[in-house]
Amino acid sequence: MRLSDEQLARYHRDGFLVFPELFSPGEVEAMKRELQRLEAIDTDHVVRERGSGSAKTLYRVHEADGPTASSPFRAAGQSPRLLEPAQQLLDDPDLYIYHTKCNRKAAIDGSIWQWHQDYGTWMHDGTPEPTLTTAMIMLDEASEANGCLYFIPGSHRLGLLDAELDDKTTSYKLWVLPKGRLIEIMEQSPEPVAITGKPGTVAFFHPTILHGSGHNMSRRDRWQIYYVYNRVANRPRDVANPRPDYVRSTNWTPLRVGSDDILAGQPALAG
Ligand code: SIN
Ligand code: MN
Q1: Counting ligands in written order, which one lies closest to the CA of residue 212?
Q2: Is the pLDDT of residue 268 over 90?
Q3: Domain boundaries, the chain
Q4: CA–CA separation, 28 vs 221, rounded Å?
Q5: Which atom number of ligand 1 is nearest to the Cα of residue 212?
Q6: Which keywords accompany this UniProt record (predicted)?
Q7: How is domain 5-234 classified at the CATH fold level?
Q8: 41 near 61, Cβ under 8 Å?
Q9: Spatial contact of 200 and 97, defined as CB atoms under 8 Å apart
Q10: Residue 72, helix vs strand vs coil
């Protein structure tokens, strides 16, 4: 899928692009079936809510090996719909997947994500430059009521901002913006944009865009999957105590664009 010059310019201006229903209902259904299968697996690649034990994040669904390997998720990561735009956005044919994560925001009591920049964490992984891009696929309808993402348009152009490590209020340890600085930025920025849409909708976003998500007030869980693409040339340098491979991949083999038929070889869905 080729992005137009106008779309590229908009991404560089706003820090994100949204493509409604880029994946079909059948593809989304197959991916949700995969989530059900994967969340039952006992592995450190599946992070669970304290108390209920229900899965809140599934990692590393894009590789051919490992406990959470999944054929449709792997195929989607190499599909022309995700990989080609990522190559254009990063102006580089040689990309690899930094990580994948499937996030469930559980109905009523699922975790929130404070305002943050993703590169605030990835910088600590030893990743030299914020030349990454994330493709998020909505696997349920995302709405303001169920805790959709919000972006502050153009905030990626502020570069990396001073952050503090929050290990209390947000979903997991996250480098978040202090309140005073955040309000200052918001006063000088366009209003935050709610990233809502039907299942199958995709949003590409920049690693320094300020984003977060609130409570899920609805009665249904909300799943989204994130594919983070990095330039092979921008792979992390050595750091002391690197995070595990499922969040900071060391598979730096450049991806090649695959088939758009992400369900090839999958059992047909009933009905
Ligand atoms: C994130 O910002 O990395 C995840 C937010 C969410 O899934 O709501
Ligand atoms: Mn994030």
Answers
A1: 1
A2: no
A3: 5-234
A4: 15
A5: 2
A6: Dioxygenase, Oxidoreductase, Plasmid
A7: Jelly Rolls (2.60.120)
A8: no
A9: no
A10: helix
State the Cα–Cα distance between residues 5 and 42, nearest whole angstrom. 45
Residue type, 154: G
Residue with tokens 């007030």: 217
pLDDT at 267: 62
| Residue 247 token pair | 């969040």
Cα–Cα distance for residue pair 55/103, rounded to 1 Å? 9
Distance CA 175, CA 164 (A): 5
Longest dimension (CA), the chain: 53
CA 5 / ligand 1 centre spacing (Å): 28
Which residue from 56, 103, 170 has its CB within 8 A of the most atoms of ligand 1, so it is best to mutate?
Answer: 103
Sole residue written with tokens 């290990």:
167
CA dist., res. 25 & res. 108, Å (int):
25
| pTM for this entry | 0.96
Q: State phi, psi for 116 to the nearest 5 degrees.
A: -160, 170
Dihedral sign computed on CA atoms, order 164, 165, 167, 172: positive
